[in-house]
From TrEMBL:
Residues 57-150 form the Methyltransferase domain. It comes from Pseudodesulfovibrio profundus. One of its GO terms (molecular function) is methyltransferase activity. It comes from the Bacteria. This is Methyltransferase type 11. Keywords: Methyltransferase, Transferase. Signal peptide: none annotated. GO terms for biological process: methylation.
Amino acid sequence: MELYEQGSINIWSDPYIRKQLLLAHLNANSDAASRKPETISATIDWMLKDSAPGAFIDWGCGPGLYSNEISARGWDVLGVDINEESVKYAEKKASEKTLSARYAVGSYLDQLSFGKFDIAACIYCDFGALKPNDRAAFLENVKNNLGEGGTFVFDVFGEQVCAGKTEGRNWLREEAKNFWCESPCYVLTECEHFKEQSVWGDKYVVIPDSGEPFSTVIWTHYFTVEAISTLLSDFGFEMTETNQNLVQNGEFISSDVIFIRAAVSGS
């Protein structure tokens, strides 16, 4: 595997896989795609503390598990996600609950202008999945959509995520209608640690019995508080608060998750 290698598909927009991701988001007994309901509620409490209801943008909103709850608490919410299936679900739930939350299909790596928001959030360690160039594009988007005095809230893995990962290669056989494709398939996996860049790469090569092979690579950066503070400073943000107690032991692939609150420097 090459550092920052890119796969042949984007799993969040692939017509088949995006449906499987939505199902994973909605499984309240698993944190494979979204955190468990009690952790989501605690995270929302922390994000909104000491803030009067205002405008909130949820970058990578998924099926609206955060956005709709924040809307129910009186905020003007916009959720943005590249997964069209998740956005449709979020809109449906908002309508059923007569919430004012709005949703848009789009990539937070594209230059998007939705107005000015009091809080911008990106939750579930999405930030650590971004390659350096993508990280710069995303932070520019965040800055351009924050109002005067607005804050950016997000989370990243700490160093202990390494304890749950092992380098190596493997393969498995999947039956029909699996996570990856309709057809039975072989899945080849490779995991590699790039220590100098503080990132793990997980590569999946899928070989369907029917159809063309495809691949995807998921990158997982990890940080110290000092490292994320320096990175934010380089992009014109100032870290104002951290919280490392929102994800409990036994949840997620690691409980070492750092939640960060930041503001545009000088605002």
